[in-house]
């Protein structure tokens, strides 16, 4: 599994890791272990970002070049609770999955 996206939490204690398998793993850097696994995307994770307060994570999935991977393209941005892993929103149709950070900033009013 290749790593495509990384984001540190605002407090620097966690690292969100987006992978080619469509899964985001939340690593607690103090414990040095995965404490949360976010599943829901159907293709590779292309962007991960924490909200400024660290309470939410936006993940984006899509393909930059459909010839590099399979023919399936997810093209969604998903918003998750960073503590529980509960998904609170799915936004569909975002080309290349590059809009995750911007969507979360707009959702948070930043």
Plain-language structure description:
A hairpin with a 5-residue loop joins strand 1 and strand 2. The strands form 2 sheets. Strands 1-2-3-4 form a 4-stranded antiparallel sheet, with no helix packed on it. Helices cover 8% and strands 43% of the residues. The protein is mainly β. It is globular, with a radius of gyration of 13 Å.
Fraction of residues in H or I helices? under 10%
What is the topology, as strand order, of the major beta sheet?
1-2-3-4
Low-pLDDT runs of 5+ residues are: none
Number of helices: 1
Number of strands: 8
Largest pleated sheet: 4 strands, antiparallel
Give the distance, in angstroms, between the N- and C-terminal Cα atoms: 33 Å
* Beta-strand percentage range: 35-45%
The run of helices and strands is EEEEEEEEH
Give the helix/strand class.
Answer: mainly beta
> Nearest-angstrom radius of gyration?
13 Å
Specify the overall morphology: globular
For the residues shown, what is the average pLDDT? 83
